[in-house]
Amino acid sequence: MQPDCAQLDTFLSDEDADLYLIEADSDDANQLYLSGFDASDPFETAYAAETGETQLLVSGLEYGRAKKESRADQVYRHADFGFEYGDREERYDMYASFLSRVADVEATDLTVAVPSSFPLGSAEQLRERGVELVVDADGTIDGMRAVKTDEEIDNVQDAQRANEAAMRAAEALIDAAAVDEDGTLVSNGEPLTSERVRSEIEITLLRHGCSLDETIVACGSQAADPHDRGSGPLSAGEPIIVDIFPKSKATGYHSDMTRTFSKGGPSETIREWYDLTREALEAALAAVEPGATGADVHDAACEVYEAAGEPTLRSEPETETGFIHSTGHGVGLDVHESPSLSPSGGELEAGHVITVEPGLYDPAHGGVRIEDIVVVTEDGYENITDYPIELVVE
Amino acid sequence: MQPDCAQLDTFLSDEDADLYLIEADSDDANQLYLSGFDASDPFETAYAAETGETQLLVSGLEYGRAKKESRADQVYRHADFGFEYGDREERYDMYASFLSRVADVEATDLTVAVPSSFPLGSAEQLRERGVELVVDADGTIDGMRAVKTDEEIDNVQDAQRANEAAMRAAEALIDAAAVDEDGTLVSNGEPLTSERVRSEIEITLLRHGCSLDETIVACGSQAADPHDRGSGPLSAGEPIIVDIFPKSKATGYHSDMTRTFSKGGPSETIREWYDLTREALEAALAAVEPGATGADVHDAACEVYEAAGEPTLRSEPETETGFIHSTGHGVGLDVHESPSLSPSGGELEAGHVITVEPGLYDPAHGGVRIEDIVVVTEDGYENITDYPIELVVE
Fold it and tell me: Is A61–B226 a contact, with Cβ atoms under 8 angstroms apart?
């Protein structure tokens, strides 16, 4: 995938900078996006304003792979600047030589733009060598990444197909479980726990070419904390939030989907919350179109909850129950990226890939969340989630 | 686990700093170590020189979990400083107020030590608010992490037990495979590929409570690039490097082990390389003791190879074949951490957990690597690897 670097060109021109520099490993999504190189140790990527070329500086160990796999126009290794092992001073001399080579400008005349996340230690060393650094506080590459190409949307959809298979596996385990006399779900003679369901989800994702760092399978009062990952036995009649956000190993793109299940009928409150959350989801989705803001979409969800008397962070900024998070976020090389569907969310554009995930939480009752993933289109949105929205698993 | 912060106290005292600050998510091992909090969004951890207290600043969404799970003496949420959603200026005002609260010093009088990786964007914002920042270029917390407590060593051993189970699963697949007429390994009627072996390794690790980002299963000429992860069908009579570095999901600690297998007899060169690499492993291990340096251990491995006429980076800095990487590295919350067994490797101490991984590489022949993980003890080392060193799988 060749990123469209027009925004980067404009930014560099506005800042009168010679190049844009990222120093990070490829867990940094901007690094992966700009370099096209997946490496677990930090390396340097420089994008030259003058030529539009992307050039990499890697260790000798990564050189062969970087030449084959990255999207860089040019790959240098440390030895190209006379560095193998050495001290910090020698390392930064090499680093400055690399930047100078990329921009064809003496280090002492270089102006280099870097993201906010750029390491302060390197910044100080480069400044000591006469390089002027400009912080890209608005995250130009984050902005570029928000609008996806068709290929990127396909990549998210592939991850979403794996996600649906994993959700089916999780629901099937809950569906097939027996219920013992105290309400605990039982599968193959053992309590069915969050951990067992999570393991089934992860194995399903692996078989579909995806990996993940974590998954939420949270039951009862655990479900009332949106970031609780869940542990221990699952119980009948209580809400079980299953939130899965896999990454495709082949492409690095994520998806993100949440469903809430109840084995057998839940409490009246949870039923009401579920219907209300579904209504909030539909209202939020109806607000999605180019030109609307992330704040508009968030407001649409808040209005449904507030009209039903449920607290939101908008109506009660200090609340710890009710709708206590934003309505959604962009998804791509990061599972949380631009745009934001929150009070600070800016204008939506065609090609944005976003999740919409309203929910209600209260430790006294548990929690409910429903999350679909959609693509903003020229005239609204396309929902790329293919999974039923049903609470009760009998 | 409560880290021993004596080195940090000394560093802060030497720098006359009021506190040590980390801003990162818990993928940053120093953040996880100091905060004891596992979170996928960035947060702030401040260690106060005066009180030795660790204090966290997290979003409202993480507040409940941070209070329960972190090792912090005090957890603040954004709202404690009057911030919910807001612009960058308000966010950094909150951030400076937090630091001021932790150290009980006005922001304009604060001296704050930060790691080299500290984000430049935040550094500039804090400096604008009068905070003086000092870069901890030598990585005080990296140094603290290198020496493990008994609990941390147990955590690595747990990950290593999972690693051994995964290696057994990989070897069993190779062992059970048939060989078709062109030498391709066949399992269940399909070519046995790097991808299938990797999938079996990953599923085994998941079942043992571990996860991983990547695994190397590289055959033939792929094995000649130490960072090639491998793809496609495996062949008989060629070296297959299997390098597994899992992370325990419960503790965050890693292990790391490599074996090289050949289905049926390999070439004479690969046999010689294997015996030589085993000899280099033994020589390097024999050099491991407190007071020896990482450079000494690396030299011991290089000497075995050089005596046999194989190039090393020590004898031929520009070589692309032979022993083309360092001899090993520390393992803990990061899979690569201090100390280093390389020309720049400093003194070993009891409690260091290190891998020793000599290897030989040449695209014309393939590659061989053998890697054990050991703990440096008062009088030498304890090898915590329990897996045979055997090349040929019949």
Answer: yes
Q: What is the ipTM of this complex?
A: 0.91
The stretch A120-147 carries a mean pLDDT of 97
Closest Cβ–Cβ partner in A206, A324, A344 for B203: A206
| Same domain, yes or no: A281 and A322 | yes
Cα of A64 to nearest chain B Cα, Å: 8
Residue of A nearest to B79 (CA): A318
Same-domain pairing of A141 and A174: no
Per-residue pLDDT band for A35 (boundaries 50, 70, 90) equals: very high
Give the pLDDT band (50/70/90) at residue A84. confident
Rounded mean pLDDT, B72-78: 96
- In this prediction, residues A109-114 reach a mean pLDDT of 98
Nearest residue, CB atoms, B225 vs list A40, A64, A114: A64
Q: Give chain A's largest Cα–Cα span.
A: 77
In this complex, which of A124, A199, A225 lies closest to B65 when CB atoms are compared? A225
Contact indicator for B259, B242 with CB cutoff of 8 Å: yes
pLDDT at B345: 94
Tell me whether residues A115 and B121 touch, CB distance under 8 A. yes
CB contact (8 A) between residue A79 and residue B317: yes
Domain that holds residue A328: 148-393
Backbone angles phi, psi at B86, to 5 degrees: 180, 180
Across residues A203-222, what is the average pLDDT? 91
**Inter-chain contact B116–A121, Cβ cutoff 8 Å?**
yes
Determine the distance in angstroms separating the CA of B307 from the nearest CA of chain A, rounded to an integer: 22
Residues A168 and A254 in one domain: yes
